[in-house]
Amino acid sequence: MFLAEAATEAVESTYSHFDIFMLVFTVLIAIGLVRLLMQRPRKNVLAIGFATVCLLVFLAADYKMISGW
Which residues, in sequence order, are CB contacts of 58 under 8 Å at separation 6+? Predict the structure, then answer.
């Protein structure tokens, strides 16, 4: 009985309500990046670069967050 209780404590989830906000922000950044890339006459290269870096950081954070669930 003691070993079963210890095993369930070790498998405890690290889910938090903030995780949902992280996923929503990642989707919003991805939508913004797609909209920046779809601009026809002139593309804002600085904004595209910044959005790409932000998206990569958020994707890495989401991967680490979801792997901890």
Answer: 22, 25, 26, 29
